[in-house]
């Protein structure tokens, strides 16, 4: 049955795709986003949009009576989190605590939270189940883990039905909604910038990892599949429980395999140069999403790397065409 939902960060990459899927499923969606990193034109049609800080807005908005909150709004650059940790402790942890307090005040029953594989740090198991000890190696991951702990105690004490979804490497695009960060650090959009001519070459961060081709292996999951897990989480959540699920395809691809897939999809040479490892990058991060499959009935369908890159490439080209059309003529 349709729910009345708040989506924080609904102008960002994953949040906008989720908001679009929620609308498609018939839910009544209010997006709250301060547009610090998101884009107003990424907010999907058919939602109510409020520009502002997630916690500030929630204090009053939730008094209207909502069935749940999907909390995407966050700072998510690992490098920045090491240079300016206060930005992450305040922006991620403090904001989330204030949001939880607002939910408690107004008896909002459900929460779905964007957690991350970065909470695990550099585990030596593969694939990674939720029972793996956490041990974040950067401030970003530490703040997400701190929020997960807070959610557990709020859920137990105040009867919230809470779910944390630990994303592995989100990629691809959904129906005109894709990845467009002002500061791009993610592999697939960076490689595609070489194909569009916005970048000369891609750097391969490390070729001496203990993997088949020496480059690091990650689990790339299509953003549409990821969004679907949020809808299932809303349905399956139970009062007073906090469940944590890893979301990935369970298959790893190396940096070189990703670059090769981008070459095939774009038809561009995509020059690549080997560079030193990036600090804190583990060799292999692959999810075991068995728990999500079993408990939520989640089945990722866009699991093929070629297809994921094809969708990201279509989005990238559409954006460029749109920017050309809207650019003033000289
Ligand atoms: N990577 C790379 N060159 C780049 C960006 C990323 O070789 O320009 C590598 C990075 O070291 C990691 C993988 O690509 O092994 C995925 O990185 P990304 O930043 O996309 O996601 P992360 O796994 O760090 O969350």
TrEMBL record:
<dbReference type="InterPro" id="IPR001509">
    <property type="entry name" value="Epimerase_deHydtase"/>
</dbReference>
<feature type="domain" description="NAD-dependent epimerase/dehydratase">
    <location>
        <begin position="6"/>
        <end position="248"/>
    </location>
</feature>
<dbReference type="InterPro" id="IPR005886">
    <property type="entry name" value="UDP_G4E"/>
</dbReference>
<keyword id="KW-0119">Carbohydrate metabolism</keyword>
<comment type="pathway">
    <text>Carbohydrate metabolism; galactose metabolism.</text>
</comment>
<comment type="similarity">
    <text>Belongs to the NAD(P)-dependent epimerase/dehydratase family.</text>
</comment>
<dbReference type="InterPro" id="IPR036291">
    <property type="entry name" value="NAD(P)-bd_dom_sf"/>
</dbReference>
<protein>
    <recommendedName>
        <fullName>UDP-glucose 4-epimerase</fullName>
        <ecNumber>5.1.3.2</ecNumber>
    </recommendedName>
</protein>
<comment type="subunit">
    <text>Homodimer.</text>
</comment>
<dbReference type="Pfam" id="PF01370">
    <property type="entry name" value="Epimerase"/>
</dbReference>
<keyword id="KW-0520">NAD</keyword>
<keyword id="KW-0413">Isomerase</keyword>
